[in-house]
Structures are given as C-alpha cells and as structure tokens.
Amino acid sequence: MKELRLANKIITTLIKDRVHYPDRLIVDTLTTIGRCGVLLLLYRYVFDLHQGTINNTPFIIAAWSMFFYFSFSVLRLRDIAKAIMQDVQSGTVEILLNKPISYLAYRMWWQVGSGLYSFLVISIVGTILMILFVGIPSTMTTPFFFSTLFLAYILGMFLSLLLYSIVGLLAFWIEEVRPVFWMVDKSVMILGGSYLPVALFPSIMYKLAVWSPFGASQFITHTVNDSWQTHWYEFMGIQLFWIAILGTIMYFLFNKARQRLSVNGG
Questions:
Q1: Most buried pick, 120, 153, 175, 188, via CB within 10 A?
Q2: Helix-strand-coil percent breakdown of the chain, rounded to 5?
Q3: To 5 degrees, how large is the angle CA 122–CA 123–CA 125?
Q4: CA–CA gap between residue 182 and residue 146 (Å, rounded)
Q5: What are the start-end ranges of the E strands in the chain?
Q6: Could you give the angle at which helices 79-90 and 103-133 cross, rounded to 10 degrees?
Q7: What confidence tens digit (pLDDT) does each residue in 114-124 have?
Q8: Model pTM above 0.90
Q9: How far apart, in whole angstroms, are the C-alpha atoms of residue 116 and residue 28?
C-alpha cells in the first residue's frame, strides 16, 4: 500500500507539473511529428510503388505498427538509465537509499509519471489523425485487440524499465554508462520496429526481434499484425520470461551496488 500511495503521489504531482509547464509536451509532439510523420509519408510512397503491399504486409498495418512504437517511446522510459547514472555520479543515490522507500521503485514511478502526460495527449491526438488519414485495419476492430494491446503496453513498460535500470546500475562500476546505453537503445530501436516495421524483417531479424529482450520490450508493434491474434499468448510468455530474467539480474546488481556503496562509503 505504501508503494501504491507513493506511485500515486509521484504520478499526480508530475502530471500537474506537465500541465502547467507544457514544454515537454511541445518537444515530444515536434519529435513525434518529425520522426513518425516523415517516416509514414516516405513509407506511403514506397508502398504505393509496390501496389500497396510489401512482403504480404499492407501499408495500413506497417503504419500503425510504427505509430505504436513512437507513441510508446514518448514515455521516455529509457531515460531511467541516465537518471540512475546521474544519481550515482552526484552522490544523490546515497541519500535516496537511506529513505524509507525503494530507490528503484521511486525511480521507475518517477520515469512513468514524467512522460505519462505527453504519452496520453500524443497517443489520443495521434490515434485520431491515424484514423482520419490512414484508416483502421480489421485487426484493430475487436475487443480482443484492445485488451491485449493494454497488456502488451504494461508488460512492455515493465520490461523496458528493467532493461534500462540494469544499464543505469552499471554506473556503480563503470560510472559512465552512455556507451552501453547507446548499444542497448539502438538494439531496441532496430528490433522494436522504429524505422522498419517488424513485419518486413528478414527471417533472422524477425527471430531476433521476437526472442531478444530488446524486441520483446516493443511487442506493441506486433499487436496490429494478423499473427498476433493466434500467437499473442506466446509473445506475452516471452515478455514474462524476460521480465523474470532481467528482474533477477537487476535485483542481483542492486544488492551488489548497495554492498559496494557501504564498503566504499559512497
């Protein structure tokens, strides 16, 4: 109950702050339009050259897949790695560890709350624009789609937070984690379907996108595909598997980090 009250307080405070100071929303909106909007225009042209279908995938499926990726990225869950690194470098982590709250839970809820307002606004407005200018695929017209989409978002958020938290915790040993962050982040971008829809991947790339934690964190991009309706439980099983593995790794690293902090005195 204490953690739920903490989560509610953090998220409520951050949303109110974002409403009064919409700088983040403006930046996220321009970024989403600049990346996703331009990509959709380019892909529409390419699909038109191929009579509207590439690799048995119509443009409408590819467009929604990319939109879901960019919508999810607005949450900026990746920033938790930099936040943890800055806490370690500044010594703030030592203060937070002595508080009667879980440091990692605090950091995760803060990251979710930080991007939630922009995510909700851009997702709602973006969905309306996608419906008007792209249309709605048949795979998105059932209650089943919306229920599994919600689960895919929740599991993807949790998996992303675990993945980037592990990167951030490495700051206790290597201090500067940006090189590791860049490698992990680029892997997520490529295998998550940011600039090339997963449905268009070659066989080997598709398997990597499905079975690696980098691609699994972005399974929301699969929800619009026809295969999702028959294999959704397999995809979510993979997500749960990686959540268990990365959760164990994060727990181990965090305990080692606390011991290191106690021995070295910060």
A1: 188
A2: 80, 0, 15
A3: 65
A4: 32
A5: 53-54, 57-58
A6: 150
A7: 999 999 999 99
A8: yes
A9: 11
Nearest to 164 by CA among 244, 106, 96, 108: 108
Which residue type is seen at 27? V
Residues 6+ apart with CB under 8 A from 132: none
The pair of three-digit structure tokens given for residue 95, joined into one six-digit string: 């203060």
| 122-170: pLDDT as tens digits | 999 999 999 999 999 988 988 889 889 999 999 999 999 999 999 999 9
Token output for 188 = 């997520």
From the CB of residue 182, how many other CB atoms can be counted at a distance below 10 Å? 11
Could you please report the per-residue DSSP string of 19-81? HH-THHHHHHHHHHIIIIIHHHHHHHHHHHHTTTEETTEEHHHHHHHHHHHHHHHTT-TTHHH
What lies within 8 Å, CB to CB, of 57 at 6+ separation is 197, 199, 200
Cβ distance 166 to 257 under 8 Å?
Answer: no
Residue 106: both structure tokens together: 């605090």
